[in-house]
Write a structure and sequence with these properties.
By secondary structure, the chain is an all-alpha fold. The chain contains 14 helices and no strands. The two termini are 34 Å apart.
């Protein structure tokens, strides 16, 4: 595999867009419980706390698994790790259609959280193809969180016509198809060489206080975005008695622009620097 300089810009853009597409597909699945959790809550008779736990389990594991997946991306490459992730996450999605008890949904939600950790795979992967415009690349890739809005459009339609069980089945197939497309169009990771970086050296970055500072920023802004994305549909249903489709549409009005504007934020970071923009 050649260096980023040897890869044409058009080919790098193909990698960027197919990786963004894969991330959007992951985010659609990750936010699934924000919509199908509403009929599941009625079916199981869950209270507000239990519903909150149901929607939080994928987010929890998605956050915790980002560090190991980022390490594996540095070691094995983003193309391999992302493809394996897409295939593996289709399994708990499909199995969730057979769940009948609350604990089963929680266990599957924890497994499904792996798909949310795809952010830690795609971010360093696409950045390596754009050494001079990393902010732009990571911003465009980050726009894949618009998958939260796509979920708000697709899931209610599937629920109303076929029941909530159809949603994870369709999403599982989408992840498998995406894995094939991604593998076909992506390139081997230029950051993976013959000499791997030792784990201790990779973890040394945790000693830098700036890392923890930016983690705190991220936990507030992205944590708030994720929480509202999964909570708003049921809020509109319960407080304003909107139909699930209308409630999801209202939630999409929040998540869609928040995702698209990530690309703008990445461009501004290249122009003015990440710290001032943040």
């Amino acid at each position: 595999m050649g260096s980023p300089r040897e890869i044409t810009r058009n080919r790098a853009l193909v990698v960027l867009f197919v990786t963004t597409f894969a991330f959007a597909a992951c985010f659609v699945a990750w936010m699934m419980f924000g919509v199908i959790g509403i009929p599941i809550r009625k079916e199981l008779g869950l209270n507000a706390s239990e519903f909150g736990l149901l929607t939080a389990t994928p987010v929890l594991t998605g956050a915790l698994l980002r560090l190991p997946l980022g390490i594996w991306t540095d070691r094995f490459g983003g193309r391999i790790v992302m493809t394996v992730l897409l295939v593996l996450c289709a399994v708990p999605l499909w199995i969730s259609t057979y769940a009948t008890a609350f604990w089963q949904f929680l266990a599957l939600g924890l497994a499904l959280g792996l798909v949310g950790a795809s952010f830690a795979v795609g971010t360093p992967y696409v950045a390596r193809f754009f050494p001079k415009n990393r902010g732009f690349a990571m911003g465009v890739f980050g726009a894949g969180v618009s998958g939260a809005a796509i979920n708000m459009f697709v899931a209610p339609a599937l629920v109303s016509h076929y029941g909530w069980q159809m949603v994870p089945r369709v999403y599982a197939v989408v992840l498998l198809v995406t894995a094939v497309i991604f593998w076909a169009l992506a390139l081997p990771d230029p950051g993976v060489g013959s000499k791997s970086i030792p784990l201790r050296q990779q973890l040394a970055v945790l000693r830098n206080p700036r890392v923890w500072k930016y983690c705190q920023y991220y936990s507030i802004v992205f944590g708030g975005f994720t929480a509202l994305s999964v909570w708003l549909p049921q809020y509109f249903v319960n407080e304003y008695h909107f139909p699930i489709g209308q409630a999801a549409l209202m939630a999409a009005c929040f998540s869609l622009p928040a995702g698209v504007l990530r690309a703008v934020g990445g461009w501004l970071s290249d122009k003015f620097g990440a710290h001032p923009v943040t």
